[in-house]
């Protein structure tokens, strides 16, 4: 394995992580799109991808199992880490235990 | 005029709420409610949009004791709140979160903490409210997209919740703390987290925990005789998260049918009985059951079911006006019945209701749509209970893409009803009388799934 390939496969590589999280979202919600069709900065909640609070709970569950930490929010109107794929990935990167 | 007490509590030092882990006494609650009642603007209608359950309860109590009518909005979206102005022009929004773009007068929830230092021994009178007083209009999102008002008088609201206190076996000697994942503005959350605490002499937790870890933490902050008030979907996700949950006293579920399998799983994992409530915003609560043990529902006292014009109507007891039910009912005796599914045109997704007829109208109103129909997939029906139903739609709209159609639909219908999938066709396979048969729809969906797997490289 070359040095470059090893770097690209590092689990905390941002591009790799966002691809992986996009795939988790598409699979968990059985969406009609491929992972690379989820734009990094488009809103996930409401407009944009159009996820609702039921989807957010589904995704939260797979995220918490895959990355080993629990998501937190005061209430369902305060799920700001789901603002975009980028904000979700930043949150995962900062909190993941695996 | 009959006067009925606001609270069932006898001891003014007893807790009525827990907020950030602190108990709040009945005395403090009543003192703060009176201060808030004096501070509210001189108006007859208050849209109570408080997210914090304690502040919501203070706002509701303040309105009751000052003769104001509370409006409970179906969501906190600015567009929804603004629609309530058409209903009551003098309405102000009582809010504890920021509403920057709202074109309605907002009364930010005032700081009460510094003004209140209730004396420990001071006597407080529990307010009595006339039974005939109009307490609130509860709004549903409505099958027409416009919020629909349902009026509730204090006496009948109270009668309904006192019936709930009895059905759940709550006693003043053993007060229960309610932890709700549902908002207090929704009829179920309003009755079963706020009024249930008021009228059983118990208390509620002020937060509305969302993620499983938040729910576990909120339960841990409360006395062990707590009741988790939630929905089938939220309950399933909580169990799926496999967290260590604190000891609780019982569980309450409503808004969508719960399977007996999930009920038994919840009871086994939480070591607590689970009760289910059947009702609606229009009727309030109609019946309860212990889902793990019985399939039959038991009606609330004095409520009757009548059968007219091919429909079942709920009437009597606390039901203000007879209401036709959206479900097919098989009556076992005067007090008990089975539910046998929904009337076919009605859609209920996670407690939000509409009809296929109205959804189809919205679809057909999009310029460029030649034909189209929403459809409830069979798989979703069979998945039953906790799995959330998602609608599908078949559309013939030459030259238009699914993205464009979804964007148009999003402006017309609640996000939860957006079709997944939206299947584009050259024409819909209607039969000779113009009907879409179930078998044809299922065939189209199966074909669409195969195409999707091929596109995504999951099938050759």
Automatic annotation (TrEMBL), chain A:
Superkingdom of source: Bacteria
Xref: PROSITE patterns: CARRIER (PS50075)
Domain Carrier: 15-96
Pfam family, any one: PP-binding
Protein's recorded name: Acyl carrier protein
Natural source organism: Thiorhodococcus minor
TrEMBL record, chain B:
Protein name in the entry: Acyl-CoA synthetase
InterPro entries with a match to the protein in the record: AMP-bd_C_sf (IPR045851), AMP-dep_synth/lig_dom (IPR000873), ANL_N_sf (IPR042099), ATP-dep_AMP-bd_enzyme (IPR050237)
Species of provenance: Thiorhodococcus minor
GO molecular function: ligase activity
UniProt xrefs under Pfam families: AMP-binding
SUPFAM superfamilies in the cross-refs: Acetyl-CoA synthetase-like
Lineage: Bacteria, Pseudomonadati, Pseudomonadota, Gammaproteobacteria, Chromatiales
Residue span, AMP-dependent synthetase/ligase domain: 9-297
Keyword entries, A-Z: Ligase
